[in-house]
């Protein structure tokens, strides 16, 4: 699902970039997030701000996917080294072969994806054995709160609880390595595909 105009504008803001840089990526470093020498897939890459941070750390490759062409145009205009951007719904990663990536990252996009359950199956498929996935996202309750204050008009169907998300990831074959629950509004997971 595409972002509403209000949310799209907010995602281009300085405060959103500050959160991405200083809370999301910095926080995940404490769980071992390291981009160097790895093939990275970012879902919902938006305008490429996260990509600009990731590519500074010498990944083997960076791939971003987003459903909004206007976001991808901004990302591609950055001319980042060894970065490739694709338009598409992240619930369908069929353009990528099995075992293609060492790491997948999500910075607050899956609550827009009606096919988030399919995404988790696809994430397992495209991750290499031992690969990691870092997810920071809003729960149903968190989305309802942001809509109350900011009127971003999220659809109800894609939303989930922490328990629903963690359970589906487990059913998809992913192992939960780390998890944080922020008052039932926001959560972070580190998942891993079994090495064998």
Q: Which radius of gyration do the C-alpha atoms yield?
A: 15 Å
**What's the tally of helices?**
7
For the largest beta-sheet, the strand count, sense and barrel status come to: 7 strands, mixed
Reading off the top of the CATH hierarchy, the class is best stated as: Alpha Beta
The count of β-strands is 7
Percent strand: 25-35%
Query: Structural class from helices and strands?
Result: alpha/beta
- Helix-strand pattern: HHEHEHEEHEHHEE
In terms of per-residue confidence, which ranges show pLDDT below 50 for 5 or more consecutive residues?
none
Supply the CATH superfamily name: Vaccinia Virus protein VP39
Helix content: 25-40%
Query: Which strands sit side by side, in order, in the main sheet?
Result: 3-2-1-4-5-7-6
By CATH, the architecture is named 3-Layer(aba) Sandwich
Shape: globular
- C-alpha end-to-end distance: 35 Å
Structure characterization notes:
The structure is a single chain. The protein is α/β, with parallel strands linked by helices and 196 residues long. It has one domain: Rossmann fold (3-Layer(aba) Sandwich). 36% of the residues lie in helices and 26% in strands. The protein has a seven-stranded mixed beta sheet, sandwiched between helices.
Protein topology:
Blueprint: H1 5-11, H2 14-29, E1 39-43, H3 49-54, E2 61-66, H4 69-77, E3 83-87, E4 101-107, H5 116-126, E5 127-138, H6 140-150, H7 162-171, E6 175-182, E7 186-192
Parallel strand pairs: 1-2, 1-4, 2-3, 4-5
Antiparallel strand pairs: 5-7, 6-7
């Amino acid at each position: 699902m595409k972002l509403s105009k209000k949310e799209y504008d907010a995602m281009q803001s300085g405060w959103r970039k500050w959160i991405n840089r200083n809370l999301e990526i910095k926080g995940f470093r404490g769980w071992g997030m390291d981009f160097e020498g790895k093939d990275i897939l970012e879902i919902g890459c938006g305008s490429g701000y996260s990509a600009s941070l990731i590519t500074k750390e010498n990944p083997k490759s960076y791939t971003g996917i987003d459903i909004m062409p206007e976001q991808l145009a901004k990302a591609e205009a950055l001319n980042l080294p060894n970065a490739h951007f694709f338009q598409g719904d992240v619930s369908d990663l069929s353009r990528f072969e099995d075992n293609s990536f060492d790491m997948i990252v999500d910075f607050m996009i899956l609550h827009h994806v009606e096919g988030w359950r399919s995404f988790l199956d696809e994430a397992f498929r495209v991750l290499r054995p031992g690969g990691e996935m870092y997810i920071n996202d809003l729960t149903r309750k968190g989305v309802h709160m942001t809509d109350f204050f900011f009127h971003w008009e999220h659809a109800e169907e894609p939303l989930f609880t922490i328990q629903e998300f963690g359970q589906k990831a487990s059913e998809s074959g992913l192992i939960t390595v780390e998890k944080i629950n922020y008052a039932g509004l926001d959560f972070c997971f580190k998942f891993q595909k079994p090495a064998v």
